[in-house]
C-alpha cells in the first residue's frame, strides 16, 4: 500500500494536474488566425512574419525599436490639473486616471523623448494607446507643445507617432483647445526651419487627425492603419451612401494623396532617417562603405620597377 500511495498515485496526479503557462506565450494573428510565438513576434517588432499584420505596441517598445540601440532620454510629463471639470459618468474621471496610470505605468497618453535614428538626432513623441485609447487631454496637449518647443531649443527635427481615438471627452472644451495649441507648436517648428514628420498608426482618428496628425511636412503610415475623423458607419449613415472598399485605410489614403507613403515598422527608422538627411542636406550614410577596411599601401621597392633593360645588340 505504501508503494501504491507514495509512487503510483503521485505519478498519476502529476499527469492529470494542470500546468501553468504564460498567457502571452502564443499570440493569435488577428488577420490570418495564425498562432505566433511571442518571442519570435517581439524579435520582429511585433509584425506578424507571414501576414505582415502590425500589432499595437506600447510607447516603450516603439521607442526601443525606433532609436539607435534602443537608447533614448524621456522628458518629464508636464504638471496640469488632473480633473479640471470634476467629470463623472458611471465612474469618476479621477478613478479612470488612476486605473490607467497603474495599468500603463505612465502619467498620461503622450510620451516625449530624444535620441538618434541612424545617426540623426531627433525629438519624438508618441501616443500610449493603452492609456484611455491614446486620447488627447490637457496633459497630452501640453506634452506635445513642450516637446515641440524642446525640439526648437535643441535644433532637432520632431517626429510624431499618432495612435489615438481623438479628444478626451472627460475634459470637454479644454481637450478641444489642445488642437489649436498643437497647431501653434507645429508653426514654431516651421519658423525654426525644422522638419516635422508624422507617423500615423492604427488608429489615428477624431480630433487628432483633425489637427497635428495632418500638418506634417511628410505623412507616413503603418500598413492597414485606420485613419480618419469619423467612423465609416457614422459617415455612411450621414450621407446615406456606401463608402468604397478599404475606405480610411492607410493604403486608400496613400492612393488618394493624403498619405505620402506606407512604410513597415521594420523599415521605419531607416526611412525617416533618410528623409531627414535629404531635408536637412546631410550626407547620405553609406553603411556598406563605412564597414569596409581602410586601404593599405604596399611598400614600394627601392629600385624603380618601370625601368627597362635594353639588350646591347638592340642598342
Question: Short summary of the structure?
Answer:
Helices cover 36% and strands 16% of the residues. The chain is an alpha/beta fold.
Structure write-up:
- The protein is of the alpha/beta class.
- The chain folds into two domains: 24-55, no CATH class; 57-281, 2-enoyl-CoA Hydratase, Chain A, domain 1, CATH 3.90.226.
- Helices cover 36% and strands 16% of the residues.
- The protein has helices at residues 2-16, 38-43, 59-66, 93-104, 138-154, 172-176, 178-191, 206-209, 232-239, 250-255, 268-280, 287-291, and strands spanning 26-28, 35-37, 73-74, 110-117, 120-127, 158-164, 196-205, 218-221, 227-228, 261-262.
- The strands form two sheets. Strands 3, 4, 5, 6, 7, 8, 9 and 10 form an eight-stranded mixed beta sheet that branches. Strands 1-2 form a two-stranded antiparallel sheet.
- A hairpin with a 6-residue loop joins strand 1 and strand 2 (35-37).
- The radius of gyration is 28 Å and the shape is globular.
Amino acid at each position: 500500500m505504501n508503494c501504491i500511495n507514495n509512487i503510483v498515485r503521485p505519478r498519476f496526479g502529476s499527469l492529470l494536474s494542470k500546468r501553468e503557462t504564460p498567457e502571452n506565450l502564443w499570440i493569435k494573428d488577428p488577420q490570418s488566425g495564425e498562432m505566433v510565438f511571442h518571442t519570435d513576434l517581439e524579435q520582429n517588432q511585433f509584425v506578424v512574419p507571414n501576414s505582415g499584420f502590425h500589432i499595437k505596441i506600447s510607447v516603450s517598445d516603439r521607442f526601443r525599436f525606433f532609436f539607435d540601440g534602443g537608447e533614448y532620454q524621456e522628458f518629464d510629463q508636464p504638471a496640469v490639473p488632473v480633473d479640471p471639470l470634476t467629470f463623472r459618468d458611471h465612474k469618476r474621471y479621477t478613478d479612470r486616471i488612476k486605473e490607467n496610470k497603474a495599468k500603463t505605468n505612465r502619467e498620461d497618453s503622450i510620451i516625449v523623448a530624444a535620441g538618434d535614428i541612424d545617426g540623426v538626432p531627433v525629438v519624438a513623441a508618441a501616443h500610449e494607446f493603452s492609456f484611455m485609447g491614446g486620447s488627447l487631454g490637457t496633459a497630452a496637449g501640453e506634452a506635445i507643445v513642450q516637446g515641440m518647443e524642446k525640439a526648437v531649443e535643441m535644433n532637432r527635427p520632431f517626429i510624431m507617432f499618432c495612435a489615438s481615438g481623438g479628444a478626451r471627452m472627460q475634459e470637454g472644451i479644454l481637450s478641444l483647445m489642445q488642437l489649436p495649441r498643437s497647431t501653434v507648436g507645429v508653426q514654431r517648428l516651421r519658423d525654426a526651419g525644422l522638419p516635422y514628420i508624422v507617423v500615423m498608426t492604427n488608429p489615428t482618428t477624431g480630433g487628432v487627425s483633425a489637427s497635428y496628425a495632418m500638418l506634417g511636412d511628410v505623412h507616413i503610415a503603418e500598413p492597414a492603419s485606420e485613419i480618419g475623423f469619423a467612423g465609416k458607419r457614422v459617415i455612411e449613415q450621414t450621407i446615406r451612401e456606401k463608402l468604397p472598399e478599404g475606405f480610411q485605410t492607410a493604403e486608400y489614403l496613400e492612393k488618394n494623396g493624403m498619405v505620402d507613403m506606407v512604410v513597415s515598422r521594420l523599415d521605419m527608422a531607416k526611412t525617416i532617417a533618410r528623409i531627414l538627411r535629404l531635408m536637412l542636406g546631410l550626407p547620405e550614410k553609406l553603411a556598406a562603405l563605412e564597414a569596409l577596411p581602410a586601404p593599405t599601401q604596399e611598400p614600394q621597392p627601392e629600385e624603380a620597377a618601370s625601368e627597362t633593360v635594353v639588350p646591347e645588340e638592340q642598342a
